[in-house]
Amino acid sequence: MTQAAPTVAVVGAGVVGICTALELLQAGYRVTLYDRDEPAKQTSFGNLAYIAAEYSTPLATPENILSALKLTFSDKAAFKVTPDHWIRFIPWAMRFLNAARAPRMAHSQSGLLKINAHAVAAWKDLLKVANASDQLVQSGFLKFWEQATDLPATHRFKVMMAELGQPSELVRNEAVFELEPTLSPQISHGLYFPSGYQLRNTFTTCQKLFACFLAQGGQFQQQDVTTIQPEEQGVMIQVGGSPARFDKLVVCAGAWSKVLLKELGLFVPLAAERGYHLTFPTITDRPRHILESADRHVVLTSLDCGLRIGGFGEYANLNSAPVTRRYTQLSQHLTAILRDINPTQKHETWMGIRPTLPDSLPVIDLHPQHPQIGFAFGHHHLGVTQAAISAKWIVERLQGVNSALKPDLPDTTPYSVTRFGS
Ligand SMILES: Cc1cc2nc3c(=O)[nH]c(=O)nc-3n(C[C@H](O)[C@H](O)[C@H](O)COP(=O)(O)OP(=O)(O)OC[C@H]3O[C@@H](n4cnc5c(N)ncnc54)[C@H](O)[C@@H]3O)c2cc1C
């Protein structure tokens, strides 16, 4: 008699959970995906869909901290803390400052380089499974500056990126507008990274992966998982007041993961870092490339649902309401960045919560005492970028693939769940 395949529950159907659930099915598990919401309706819904594999610098750097302090009260500041959150934010900020120390920064950078190096290939593999390869587009990435006085800093950034294996081309004056005709004449220069990839829209991609998951026999339950209890054999969860048992479980609950980990005796300093977007469905003259304003810290992408501008790193309590002033600020940035734009035309507004750890590395690991429980969360600004590779790695860990025994597999030690102590 053949043995039935082991069962796995995945908690959280954002981009990370959906990729993980599909990867588990491919590995032969019987998978049930849980979300209290519809799939990909939280942070994975409204992001900028940029596969930012170019970005291997952690958020905690002396330059970022200095710039955050200088711009605290400016509308151009990307970094914000809501007034009701300051007291809770201080312990996290102390860890963030600590993560900006040279050896720690080097550790974070090496962890980011390692995971980002596999990001695009992992997306290609997973999209092929869902017959959705057309979702990944190589649009090229253009980071631009408004002041010519920033040219020396731009050169330094270009050299640093080249050293990290990300070559770029400096474009100035007319060459900027030949490359990207939608940009406003006030833009001075830019760095063009032709290797930049994006999804057509993270939400659409999630829908396609989710449809494939269901078609291949995966189960979805729209339920809140309230308790996770490890057992001698497997794991028991409470959903909608009833228990359900599985052989294994993976927590992919984004910014809400901390609560579930606490119950499992683990501590992670996971911050709720909010970002905002405006999406203009009817603008037809859209940028050809993924655009980032170095001065305004906003990103623009052309998606299947319209032109999107997004940004801000706003630290807040998990359940507090959006700060609506941010939408006006995004609208002002858009007017400054693009020529001939009317930001009052029909648009959608959105706020989402990034799961952010002080060292800018995700958690991709197994529970130290209960290895039948895995974790994949904490991807901050890079959740779309790293979703497919995180899914691959956590499934390899759950399968018991040991990187020490198979040196060709990446070492996931930098993404350990216990790295923050208690
Ligand atoms: C403005 C903005 C722009 C961004 N742009 C980019 C970008 O261009 N590129 C990039 O790489 N990243 C980007 N990001 C970051 C990216 O969106 C996130 O890192 C990513 O969406 C996180 O995915 P996730 O699956 O971990 O979390 P989520 O998408 O938040 O999913 C977690 C899910 O878990 C569910 N859940 C939680 N707790 C429970 C429970 N107890 N029971 C049941 N369900 C539960 C939630 O309902 C939710 O659906 C951006 C973020 C923002 C805010």
Task: For this entry, give a set of tags.
single chain, alpha/beta, D-Amino Acid Oxidase, Chain A, domain 2, six-stranded mixed β-sheet, 11 helices, globular, binds flavin-adenine dinucleotide
CATH class label of one domain:
Alpha Beta
- Helix percentage: 25-40%
CATH homologous superfamily of one domain - what is it? Answer: D-Amino Acid Oxidase, subunit A, domain 2
Biggest pleated-sheet summary: 9 strands, mixed
Poorly predicted ranges:
none
Treating each run of at least 4 consecutive H or I residues as one helix, how many helices?
11
Q: Which ligands accompany this protein? A: flavin-adenine dinucleotide
What's the architecture of one domain in CATH terms? 2-Layer Sandwich
Question: How many E-type strands?
Answer: 21
Mean pLDDT: 94
Rg, alpha carbons: 21 Å
Gross morphology is globular
- Class from secondary-structure proportions: alpha/beta
Q: How far do the termini sit from each other?
A: 46 Å
User: How is the CATH topology of one domain named?
Assistant: D-Amino Acid Oxidase, Chain A, domain 2
Estimate the strand proportion: 15-25%
Quaternary status of these chains? single chain
Q: What order do the helices and strands come in, and which of them pair?
A:
Blueprint: E1 7-11, H1 15-26, E2 30-34, E3 50-51, H2 62-70, E4 79-81, H3 86-99, H4 102-116, H5 119-129, E5 136-137, E6 141-145, H6 151-163, E7 169-172, H7 174-179, E8 189-193, E9 197-199, H8 202-215, E10 219-221, E11 225-230, E12 235-239, E13 242-246, E14 248-251, H9 257-263, E15 271-280, E16 290-293, E17 298-303, E18 306-315, H10 325-337, E19 348-356, E20 363-366, E21 373-377, H11 383-398
Parallel strand pairs: 1-2, 1-14, 2-10, 4-18, 6-16, 14-21
Antiparallel strand pairs: 3-9, 5-9, 6-8, 7-8, 11-12, 12-13, 15-18, 15-19, 16-17, 17-18, 20-21
Helix pairs in contact: 1-8, 1-11, 5-11
This protein binds flavin-adenine dinucleotide.
